[in-house]
Amino acid sequence: MYTYSFEKLEVWNEAKEFTKTVYLLTSKFPDNEKFGLTSQIRRASVSICSNIAEGSARKTDKDKAFFTTIAFSSAVEVLNQLIICKDLQFLNGEDYDKCRLQIESITNKLNALRNYQINK
């Protein structure tokens, strides 16, 4: 079976695993948040790995860097939503800290990938 280039990227794999973490954590959120924060944070987390994948299929490095930037922006959006979830006590401190460390790793790798794509 063919392996696509994005599947070989460490940052894509981290983002995919992070998305799974987000889905598991948000499954414990209050039912009245199903169409609020739960839906929003899930979409934003999926957007991280999806934009990495989509960008890998682009022809020019400029286009690739554009999608890497969108992935980075989605990661920051998720961080904002996690902060709100923590403030609302939907997340405990330990889960929040774990997610924040994952986002920090992902954004660092996305920043490095974007710099590589721009300076290639």
From TrEMBL:
Pfam families reported for this sequence: 23S_rRNA_IVP (PF05635)
Top-rank taxon: Bacteria
TM segment ranges: none
Official protein name in the record: Four helix bundle protein
